[in-house]
Each structure stands twice: as C-alpha cells, then as structure tokens.
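Customer ticket, subject: "Can you confirm the structure for Acyl-CoA thioesterase II?"

Message body: Hello, I'm evaluating your service for our small team and ran a test protein. I'd like someone to confirm that this is what the system normally returns, since I don't have a reference to compare against.
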Amino acid sequence: MTEAVAELIAILDLERLENDLFRGHNPKTGWRRVFGGQVVAQALVAAQRTVSADRPVHSLHAYFLLPGDPRIPIVYEVERLRDGQSFTTRRVKAIQNGRAIFATTVSFQIVEDGFTHRPERPDVPGPEGLPGGREIAAMAGLALPEAIAAYFARPRPIDLRPVDLRRYRGGEPRGPVFNVWLRAAATLPDDPALHRAVLAYASDMTLLDVALIPHGRSVFDPQVQAASLDHALWFHGPVRADEWHLYAQDSPAAAGARGFARGQIFDREGRLVASVAQEGLIRPRLD
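Agent reply: Thanks for trying us out. I re-ran your input and got the following:
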C-alpha cells in the first residue's frame, strides 16, 4: 500500500468523541485550505457510523460554508433525522473553531430490487496506455504548464488518468466535457463503506474545473478564484474504489460568477455506479 493511500485510510478512520460526535484529522499536505473532497468523505463516514451496515448510502447533498483550516482537526456532529422502515436520514455538520464550515444531509436505504435502467458509458480509450503521474510530470514546461503537470504527478491516494490532456494546452477554449479514469492508488480493505467514502473523496477532484473549459481557463490559473459551493452525490450500486472508473464530466452552464458541473462515474463493465453535481465559485481575480 502506498503512503498516500494509507494516509487517506487513516484520515477516514474518524475518532469517536461521544455518541454521534466524531473528530477527523487532516493530512500534512501544505495546502492553505482543506480539500473539499476530504470533508465530504469524512462527513459521510461519520453518518455511516450511525447507521447499520445493511443500509448503504444512496445520496448526499452538501454545502461548503467556510474554508477548512488544515492545521486543526475537524469535529463532525451527526443529527439523527429519521429512522424509517426503508430509509434513514442523517444531517452532519463539520465544525472548526466553533463555527460550521460544512453541512450535509445523507440518506440511506435498505437494499431493494426494482426498475433498472442506465446510460451507456462514453466511448473513450481505457486507462491502459494513458499517461499516469510520471508521464504527466515529464510534460511539464513542454506539452503542459508546470503547475498542471505537478498537480497530476504529485503522490496522491487517487490515481488520475485524463483521457485527453489537450484541454490544458495553450488555453484554447473547448467544449465543456472532460473524461478522466480514476481509482485508489493501492488496494483498499474489503469494507464497502470505505469504498463509498473514497469515491466521495475522488468525486470532488476535477469536477469544478470543467466549468472553465469553454473560457480557456482552469482552476490552476492564478487569475481565477475558484471554490466549491455545494456538492451532490448519488450512489446507484456497489462500488469498488480501487478498480478503474471513468468519471465523465460536463458543464451545461455558468453564470453569476458560478459554474455548474455534472459527472457520471462508470465502472470498467460500463455500469453507472454514481452521479455527481456541483456548483462552484469561478470569478476572475481583481487583485
């Protein structure tokens, strides 16, 4: 297991402080704020720990309220809203310095059979043969700007392989579509709740950036201020987060200094396992 994956598993193993009260720690990354996907995943873990394992999560709706401070732990307070025959609902608040920095509502359901239909996975090349971390790092200053190459190349718990890197070359406006293969960078323990949390973590990694593609910009541009505002995630079936999944993303609209982006996560067999939607702040910096 890689060090980055071991660290991710550790930060998702929340400390129980009291009934329905948990504490999560942050990785030592040197970032100025806590990664939003980490807070989403930790909040999901907190909620899952108050629900029986036979009721998997099916949806999560969240708001990012304040930037998280990576220097101090985050306390997660779970409120039990409903325990029904089929559905269970939890509200989770993430707190630092006595203030809420994040809030989410999470819904769980017993496993049931019913009507089923799914879309086709986009017809794109598989992850084999696509450039990974080392290959992308070698493109710095040549085929890719250094900041972008460094982002994809740094040791991380999620292995990212974009289908087409041309989106980052030269700032040329393109259609608001981005496909990336992703998986945990090492084999994970056989815990379904952990796999769902890891997928929730990964779902926030590249999504908002898609809203900047039509404008020839990216979140790596120092002249762009970008931040996630909300995040919604639906699980459609079992997830094995250490196997390859295609994250097919698009952005249908941007307005009012906000960008809206959607994502569909497919497994290697073409099954849609999760859907994602997010709105985020994207505004030109004035300083």
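A couple of notes from the result: The first strand starts at residue 15 and ends at 18. Residues 3-110+129-284 form a domain with the Porin fold (CATH 2.40.160.210). Feel free to reply with more questions.
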